[in-house]
Design a protein that fits this description.
The structure holds two protein chains of two kinds.
Chain A (H helix, E strand, L loop, with lengths): L4 H4 L3 H9 L3 H23 L2 H17 L10 H19 L16 H7 L10 H19 L3 H12 L4 H8 L3 H18 L1 H5 L1
Chain B lengths: L10 H8 L5 H9 L1 H18 L10 H6 L8 H13 L3 H27 L1 H31 L4 H9 L1 H26 L12
The chains are: A mainly alpha, B mainly alpha.
C-alpha cells in the first residue's frame, strides 16, 4: 500500500490494526494525522517550541510503542491527546513557567535561539497591515491563553482549537462532564476580561 | 424602558446559542436584552480569535525522529511465516528442500490417518492400558508422599496443634500475616519507577 492516498481513506482504528500487524507505513500515517494537533496543543501548554517538540516526540514514542495495549473501542484521538496532555501537565507541575514570549522561548539564551523558538504566526496573513493586526490580536489571545490555569488551558484548546466534543474532552482529561463545561466557561470568561482593552480599542 | 422578559442567559444558554439551539424563551430574552447581546457578541469574538490561532507544525524530520525510537510490532505469526517464506524462496535448492519437506509432512499425515482408521481396536486397548498405568502411578505417588509426611519428626506437633482449634487459629493467623508481609515487601521491591521522563532526547 502506498504512503498517502490509500491510507487517507482508512479510519484511525483501521490504521491502528495495520500498525499492530507490523506495517511501518501505518505508524507513519498515525504520526502524519496527529503531529500538528499534538504539537500545537503541547506548544500552547508549555509555551516553548523545543520543549513542545520533545514532549510531542515523547507522546508519539510512548503511544506507538504501546500500540498493542490500545483498546479500539476508544477513539485513538482521545488516547493520544490524553498521553500528550499528561506529558504537558507532568512537565508544568515540575516547573513553573514564565509568561509567554512571542519573540521566542523564555529559556533561549542567544538571539539565534530566540529566533528559532519564536512563535510562527503568519500562515494566514495577507498584507503588512493585516500582519500587524493579526500579530497583535493573535499575540494577545496567545498570551491570555498562556496565563490561564493549565486545566482551563487544556479544556479551551481541546474545545476551540481542536474542535473536540465536551464528552471527548472529559474522557481525555479524566474529568466529569460538568467540570469540563465549567472550566471552559470560566476560561472564556477570563479570556474576555483579559482582552477587554483590545475590544474597547 | 420596556422590561426584558425572562432571566439573563446562563453559560448553558451560551453553549446552546453557539450550537444554534437556543430555546425560544431565551431567544426572546436575547432579542430584548442589550447586556446579553453584548455577552454573546463577545463570546463569538473570543471563540473566533481562538479558532483563528495559527496552525503549527513540528520541525522537519519529526516523523523520522519518532520512528527511530519506535519498535514496529512484529506479531509472532507474521514474523515466523515471513522468515519461512524468505528462507524457502532464497534459492532453487532451498525451494526443492522446502517442497520435499512439505510432501513428507503431507504423506506422513495421510499415512497416520489411514493407519488410525484401520487399527481402532488396537488404539482403544493401548488407551485403556495407559489409563490403568497412570492411575496406579498416581496412587503410588500419593501413598509415598503421605508416608513421608507421617514419618517427619514435627508430624506429632502438627497433630497436637490440629487437635486444638484455638492454637490452630493463632497459627493460621500468624502464617497469614507472614505471607502478606512477604507479598507487600516483594511489591515494594519490585515496583517500577513512577517518575516520568521530562524530555525525549532526539
Amino acid at each position: 500500500m502506498a504512503d498517502t492516498p490509500e491510507w487517507v481513506r482508512l479510519s484511525d482504528q483501521e490504521v491502528v490494526l495495520a500498525a499492530r500487524a507490523g506495517r511501518e507505513a501505518a505508524y507513519r500515517e498515525l504520526i502524519r494525522r496527529y503531529e500538528r494537533p499534538i504539537f500545537a496543543l503541547l506548544f500552547r501548554m508549555v509555551r516553548d517550541r523545543e520543549l513542545a517538540e520533545d514532549l510531542a516526540q515523547e507522546t508519539f514514542i510512548k503511544a506507538l510503542n504501546a500500540i498493542e495495549s490500545y483498546r479500539p473501542e476508544f477513539k485513538f484521538s482521545s488516547w493520544i491527546f490524553k498521553i500528550a496532555n499528561n506529558a504537558a501537565i507532568d512537565h508544568l507541575r515540575r516547573r513553573e513557567l514564565d509568561t509567554l514570549s512571542l519573540d521566542g522561548s523564555p529559556h533561549a539564551e542567544t538571539p539565534e535561539a530566540m529566533q528559532a523558538t519564536a512563535l510562527q504566526i503568519g500562515a494566514r496573513q495577507e498584507s503588512p497591515l493585516d500582519a500587524v493586526e493579526a500579530k497583535e490580536l493573535g499575540g494577545a489571545i496567545e498570551a491570555a491563553i498562556g496565563r490561564l490555569r493549565p486545566e482551563y488551558r487544556s479544556c479551551i484548546l481541546l474545545r476551540h482549537v481542536e474542535g473536540r466534543a465536551y464528552e471527548e474532552i472529559a474522557e481525555i482529561l479524566d474529568l466529569p462532564l460538568g467540570t469540563v463545561k465549567t472550566y471552559i466557561h470560566r476560561a472564556r470568561n477570563e479570556l474576555r476580561l483579559a482582552l477587554a482593552h483590545l475590544r474597547e480599542a | 424602558m420596556t422590561p426584558v422578559p425572562g432571566p439573563h442567559l446562563t453559560p448553558e444558554d451560551l453553549d446552546a446559542w453557539l450550537a444554534g439551539a437556543l430555546a425560544p424563551a431565551a431567544q426572546t430574552h436575547l432579542a430584548g436584552c442589550p447586556a446579553c447581546q453584548e455577552r454573546v457578541d463577545t463570546e463569538r469574538e473570543i471563540i473566533a480569535l481562538i479558532e483563528g490561532l495559527p496552525l503549527m507544525s513540528p520541525a522537519a524530520g519529526f516523523t523520522d525522529r519518532v520512528m527511530a525510537r519506535v519498535a514496529v510490532a512484529q506479531p509472532l505469526r507474521v514474523s515466523t511465516l515471513e522468515l519461512l517464506r524468505r528462507r524457502a524462496l532464497a534459492s532453487r535448492r532451498s525451494m526443492a528442500v522446502a517442497a520435499s519437506l512439505l510432501v513428507l509432512v503431507a504423506a506422513s499425515m495421510a499415512a497416520s490417518v489411514i493407519w488410525t482408521l484401520g487399527h481402532q481396536a488396537t488404539l482403544a486397548a493401548l488407551g485403556g492400558w495407559l489409563g490403568t498405568q497412570a492411575g496406579q502411578a498416581a496412587w503410588l505417588g500419593l501413598r509415598w508422599v503421605a508416608s513421608n509426611f507421617i514419618e517427619q519428626p514435627w508430624f506429632a506437633d502438627v497433630r497436637t496443634l490440629a487437635a486444638s482449634p484455638g492454637r490452630l487459629g493463632i497459627a493460621a493467623a500468624l502464617a497469614l500475616v507472614a505471607y502478606l508481609s512477604g507479598v507487600l515487601a516483594l511489591r515494594r521491591l519490585l515496583a517500577l519507577p513512577t517518575q516520568r521522563v521530562a524530555h525525549a532526547a532526539v
